[in-house]
Amino acid sequence: MQKEIYYPNPEFAKDARINSMEQYHQLMDEAKRDYEGYWKKFADEKIEWYKPYSKVLDESNAPFYKWFTDGKLNVSNQCIDRHLEKRGDQTAILFEGDRGDVEHISYKELSERVNRFANLLKEKFGIKKGDRVVLYMPMIPEAAYAMLACARIGAIHSIVFGGFSAEALKDRIIDAEAKLVITADGAYRKGKPYLLKPVVDQALSDGVDSVEAVLVVQRNREEINWVEGRDHNYNELIESFSTKCEPEMMDSEDPLFLLYTSGSTGKPKGVQHSTAGYILWAQMTMEWVFDLREGDVFWCTADIGWITGHTYIVYGPLAAGTTTVMFEGVVTYPDAGRAWKMIEQHGITQFYTAPTAIRLLHKMGADEPKKYDLSKVRVLGTVGEPIDPPAWKWYYEVVGRGKASIVDTWWQTETGGHMISPLPGATPIKPGSATFPLPGIMAEVIECDGSPTPVGEKGFLCITKPWPSMIRTIWGDPERFKKSYFGDCKKYGKPVYFSGDGAMVDEEGYITITGRTDDVINVSGHRIGTAEIESAIKKIDRVAVSAVVGKPHNIKGEGIFAYIVLKDANDDKEAIKEEINAVLKQEIGAIALCDEIVFVPDVPKTRSGKIMRRLLRSIAKGEPITQDTSTLEDPTVVDEIQKIVKEG
Ligand code: WTA
Fold it and tell me: 66 forms bridges with which residues in the sheet?
């Protein structure tokens, strides 16, 4: 299987934007020869500048790299206004609700909605350039309007995924010192209404000083609590604002948004993205990786609370002037045919989802895609976690009918857009490999000293040159930014970005991602730090020690496996299990619930007191222990834990 190579469908490749490996190499060579010239060409061609930039890349204050210095632009102009003449009546957002309700929002309508929203933010709430606005929203078009309205007036949005708990929301609001929270009463999932607003109420109930107002979009009109003076009804207010709002002149380097993500310490990091570099690469990758053409209907199933939703539901597709599908529901409801039915009904041409969803859809209905007309689909994408060859094959053969190209896209919240991915009309694919860096991206698999990792061995996946859409800093913590991502590898002369992932290169240069090398677990393509989980569990008084690791899971990719040491070994274990999951739900959200919890007498620690997580990972997987255990404080504990795990 690993040796099999899949070539692009020649019929499709002949008209593709990048249609051969020669063309790929040409672009890559151009970038290597004249890096700034390469990016200048695209920045000039793709972006509508209000004022030209004076320098392409400023490396003087590395790793705080700057792109397109002094350039002025506005992302909402890039995504809306400049399309109006040609595409005013074309659908910009194709919304499908959980219950099957469909709405087509044209570019013209999008413009009106966003302009009104921008005026509302400015005039009603006094939101100005640089203010932070937190969005805690379901997947409804108003979420996109809110993002673009912030971009229009220069406010920095920070979206918090709707599955995060009140505590997690509160931490993010406080860290960003947000002035306004935009939310909805709730939305619909699996045929039923659910609520979001109570979570916001709880988050704001105590200890948040910065928030002056809450703007509430009515989606399901369920009864919610209303705080007089603080809460405002979007639906009642919006129509009174004008459909014209001059876009703010933004500097290339002005922050566009913050998005919090997990790292190896307990506190989530506010990843800060820029204006020009981000939108340029969002648009370019949208066009190249999905081989975007006129008339396409693009569907990315992510939630806007994650980077994939930012770049490939809102900013990338709209900057590229295509039709983007936004879906409120889940692809397995009411049955395993929902996604395929939507693809047929809307004539979707590119479908982009996570391997977890592919495995689930495969399991729930392997033949289900055959019942629908999926013939318009040209590109099928995956993101967020490694895709295993059986899932890849089913996606390719059954969903793609052996004709669509599969793009396994590797990237991160911090990279802003795709970094390593096949080009659908050019790259011969080896299933399970993200293949090659995109043109202009200098990705290398290296050792700590910067030397290339030998073929077939695991090394650190690094990006050795800055790229336009890279993270600019961690909000409020530039030191952490430097420490988290830039080692002091001298070989490249400049600080080099380390992704936190391991990878392997084969003899033909194909890159395969081998997973995180830090203490981050990837559950269904979502990053969760073990430290975050452990610090939540620590709140339970009866727990003495907890150590959390990822364990392979046949649907979710990785599941959460917790080792717990109780203060009193005779305590009621079932009750504590429940308590652990309750506290995780309260502190983080349902995505952090443990799949397995085992009670152990102790956890293996080095003599300096560091928990040996690698050992715990091997034990959870049921692997034989190959690591040296002689340096442990108490080596006998390993046998004991192994026995407990084996006996379940
Ligand atoms: C993992 C999601 C294997 C990786 C866009 C990375 C992947 C983390 C892939 C980023 C892929 C993402 N193959 N692993 N194609 N894509 N990952 O920030 O570990 O939510 O570091 O961004 O997901 O997750 P994030």
Answer: 58
Query: What pLDDT is stored for residue 3 in this prediction?
Result: 66
Where in the chain are the domains? 34-329, 443-516, 520-647
Q: Whose CA is nearest to atom 22 of ligand 1?
A: 412
Residue 360 CB coordination number (10 Å): 19
Contact 302, 309 (CB under 8 A): yes
Quick one: DSSP state of residue 164? B
| Residue 21 to residue 184: CA distance in whole angstroms | 47
Percent of the chain with pLDDT strictly greater than 70 = 100
Exposed / middle / buried, residue 11 (Cβ in 10 Å: 0-12, 13-18, 19+): exposed
Which one, of 572, 644, 571, lies nearest residue 602 by Cα? 644
Q: Are 197 and 216 in contact (CB under 8 A)?
A: yes
Ligand 1 pocket test: which of 408, 410, 504, 558 has the largest number of ligand atoms within 8 Å of its C-beta? Answer: 410
pLDDT digits (tens, 9 = 90+) for 50-62: 999 999 999 999 9
With tokens 């290169």, the residue in question is 505
Q: Give strand pairing partners of 95.
A: 103, 326
Query: What is the torsional sign of CA 390, 394, 400, 402?
Result: positive
If you take atom 6 of ligand 1, which residue's CA is the nearest one? 412
Two structure tokens written together for 228? 């007089």
Tokens of 421: 């991915």
pLDDT for 204 equals 98
Q: Look at the pTM and tell me if it is higher than 0.85.
A: yes
Domain 520-647 has CATH 3.10.350.10: no
Q: Which atom of ligand 1 is nearest to the CA of 414?
A: 18
CATH 2.30.42.10 fits 34-329, yes or no: no
Residue with CA nearest ligand 1 atom 25: 412
What's residue 1's pLDDT?
A: 43
Tell me how crowded residue 347 is: count the other CB atoms within 10 A of its CB. Answer: 15
Closest CA to 496 of 460, 457, 521: 460
C-alpha distances out from residue 570 to 542, 543, 582, 594, 601, Å: 11, 12, 21, 21, 11
For domain 443-516, give its CATH number from 3.40.50.620, 3.40.50.1000, 2.70.70.10, 2.30.38.10: 2.30.38.10
Residue 392's alpha-carbon distances to 128, 131, 292, 387, 425, in angstroms, are 46, 43, 22, 6, 18
**Alpha carbon of 547 to ligand 1 centroid (Å):** 23
Neighbouring C-alpha atoms within 13 Å toward the C-beta of 624: 1
Cα end-to-end span (Å), the chain: 34
Using the mean position of ligand 1's atoms as its centre, give its distance from the Cα of residue 81 in Å.
32
Q: Taking 70 as the threshold, does the pLDDT of residue 171 lie above it?
A: yes
Q: Do 520-647 and 34-329 fall under one CATH topology? A: no
Give residues with Cβ within 8 angstroms of 564, minimum separation 6: 537, 543, 545, 546, 576, 580, 597, 598, 599, 600
Both tokens assigned to 135: 């969005």
Name the pLDDT band for 391 (thresholds 50, 70, 90). Answer: very high
User: Which tens digit of pLDDT belongs to each residue from 433-471?
Assistant: 999 999 999 999 999 889 999 999 999 999 999 999 999
Residues flanking ligand 1, CB < 6 Å? 261, 306-308, 383-386, 408-413, 434, 499-501, 513, 516, 522, 527
**Residue 387 CA: which ligand 1 atom is closest?**
13
Region 591-600: mean pLDDT is 96
